[in-house]
Design a protein that fits this description.
Layout: E1 8-12, H1 16-22, H2 27-47, E2 52-59, H3 67-91, E3 93-98, H4 106-119, E4 125-133, H5 135-151, H6 162-167, E5 179-182, E6 201-204, H7 214-225
Parallel strand pairs: 1-2, 1-5, 2-4, 3-4, 5-6
Helix pairs in contact: 1-2, 2-3, 3-4
The chain binds farnesyl diphosphate.
Length: 237
Amino acid sequence: MTFLPPGHLAVIMDGNGRWAKARGLDRFHGHIQGVESIRRTVELCIEHGIKYLTLYAFSTENWGRPDEEVNGLMELLCKCTVNEVPELKKQGVRVRFIGDLDILDDKVRESIENSHRETRDNDKLHLMLAVNYGSRAELTSSLKEIANMVIDGDLAIDDITSDLISEKLYTSGIPDPDLIIRTSGECRLSNFLLWQAAYSEFYFTDVLWPDFGREEFERAIENYKKRTRRFGLVHNK
Ligand code: FPP
């Protein structure tokens, strides 16, 4: 058993739309309520001594949602990034966004860059928000960069290692997730941290993301602490 909480927790925040629909509300209310769950989860991670938290906020596939929802999510992202930074800074949280950020609107990018700058000296909790994130795109870009190093004569084929591939990912320098939680009863990774999740533990819960609070968080952490992680080795009894 690990006995310890995960050093790095990653969450696929799912079920905002269903939460809203069940209350006869517009889907967007689910996303607004989802922000409350993010605040709670950040506080719970700090309380439990978890050092890294990665949240899947917007995938490369989410652009295919209706324009109204995509624009609303981008606005919410921008608003939250601006409004939440002072409190996150106070809490000792370092904020980072991972994903292909180049194609985001200038206003969104500026708010992201500001959050990076404002919180870069913090170390209590590293909060990574995955936006326009897709694991296949991340790996493709990493492999292209490595191929170019080979073409330019800066790298020998034999020097391509899994560590080097990890270094070229958006998550460079961030430890792999120990535990990945997905809410809302779906049991899949949906293009999230495919490389980094090689030895992650998984916890799937029926709770919808806007309802995810202390009780389910602690259930997931306690469940994780009882897991025996072998990383492909033999378990020593
Ligand atoms: C999945 O629920 C949720 C998302 C795609 C967005 C997650 C966003 C938030 C928690 C709000 C904060 C947003 C940003 C960008 C910081 P879903 O809409 O797929 O729910 P459903 O499966 O019930 O339809």
